[in-house]
């Protein structure tokens, strides 16, 4: 009697500095979303498929430390933060049955623009981050 193979657990090990630059390079309005995420395996499935961590130290200001781009000084607004979380969660729920997501996701950077950033762009950036992390895991 054969048994079914164990599903691939995502992520099997920490995947750090998944940087997504989701930008429109023409003069149209958006999308504009720059995020960096770390994915780590959860110790158990209590919070599966994903739990988020937004470090308090970074919530106090936007991450344009150079001052060149004149981004707003606030951290990511709540609607954009929620959209980013939704994008990651939707991408994890859409994975094939042979991949079992159980990820702790830490947002280490988020840059937005007052005019060009919108929820759709951050939702897409979250999904793109999951795809990039999977690629780094060999999937």
TrEMBL record:
InterPro entries: Ribosomal_Su5_D2-typ_SF, Ribsml_uS5_D2-typ_fold_subgr
Gene3D superfamilies referenced in this protein's UniProt entry, alphabetically: 3.30.230.10
The protein's name in its UniProt record: Translation elongation factor EFG/EF2 domain-containing protein
Provenance organism: Streptomyces gilvosporeus
């Amino acid at each position: 009697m054969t048994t079914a193979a164990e599903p691939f657990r995502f992520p099997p090990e920490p995947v750090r500095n998944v940087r997504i630059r989701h930008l429109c390079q023409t003069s149209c309005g958006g999308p504009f979303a720059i995020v960096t995420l770390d994915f780590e395996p959860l110790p158990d499935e209590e919070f599966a498929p994903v739990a988020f961590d937004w470090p308090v130290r970074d919530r106090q200001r936007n991450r344009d430390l150079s001052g060149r781009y004149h981004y707003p000084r606030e951290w990511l607004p709540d609607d954009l933060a929620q959209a980013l979380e939704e994008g990651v969660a939707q991408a994890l729920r859409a994975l094939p049955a042979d991949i079992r997501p159980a990820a702790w996701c830490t947002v280490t950077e988020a840059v937005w623009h007052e005019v060009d950033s919108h929820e759709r762009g951050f939702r897409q950036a979250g999904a793109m981050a999951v795809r990039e992390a999977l690629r780094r895991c060999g999937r």
